[in-house]
Amino acid sequence: MHLVAEERADILFETRKPWIVDVRVDGDGVVWPELDRDSRSLEVRCPRGTGVVVGTASGSVALEGEFGHVSVSTESGTIRLDRAESADLRSSSGSIEVEGCGERCRVSTQSGKAVIGAAGATEVDTVSGSIVLEGAAGGVRARSASGSVEVRTTGKHDVAVETLSGKVRVRVPTEVKPAAALKSLSGRRVFDCEAGSDCCVAVRTMSGSIEVVPD
């Protein structure tokens, strides 16, 4: 499924095959498209800033442009989002990529990596897959059963990371003085920042190294 938010006043649905598309638009202007078969042939074009709720059994979902609140759930397939005010993205099997999210961003995938660019408060959960958060402008909570975790913050924001096995690296602005709580049963722990009380960086891992460094 491909959704495009652009300068337009209407909502356009295009399919390559004559399948039934059931569309609901709620009182807040949120679009709920439902397709009776494989969603890969559906393209939706809507006004910039539109909120979208999407659910698919199989097939990738790509959202191009600037959206309002976005909620996407897919059983198997990748999710790619350009920009949204807020987002709740879930995939049972597939990677998730977010370029930008102005406010809260929630990402969950069972198998696949999660890559997030700029975002506000962020929550990320993976079972088997790495986590990369490139610009957190809010508090961060990241959990992974197996996979590396890399977080970069842009201010005085708390960071909490839990992983069973995987390297954890947290980068904070040079001027920020965090308090750190780093626990690893087997793995080195590196804290190269000037300690203080601007924020808290808490990392816990069973096996894997931990690095908290200035950016």
What does this structure look like?
By secondary structure, the chain is mostly beta strands. The protein contains no helices and 21 strands. The chain folds into two domains: 1-138, no CATH class; 139-214, no CATH class. The strands form two sheets. It has a 19-stranded mixed sheet that branches. A two-stranded antiparallel sheet has the order 3-4. The model has no long low-confidence stretch (mean pLDDT 89).
The H/E string reads EEEEEEEEEEEEEEEEEEEEE
Give the count of helical stretches. 0
* Total domain modules: 2
The share of residues in extended strands comes to: over 45%
List the uncertain runs. Answer: none
Radius of gyration over C-alpha positions, nearest whole angstrom: 19 Å
Q: Tell me, what's the shape?
A: elongated
Which class best fits the helix and strand makeup?
A: mainly beta
Query: Strand tally, please?
Result: 21
| Separation of the first and last Cα atoms | 37 Å
Helix content: under 10%
Largest sheet: 19 strands, mixed
Mean pLDDT: 89
Q: What would the keywords be for this entry?
A:
2 domains; about 220 residues; single chain; 19-stranded mixed β-sheet; mainly beta
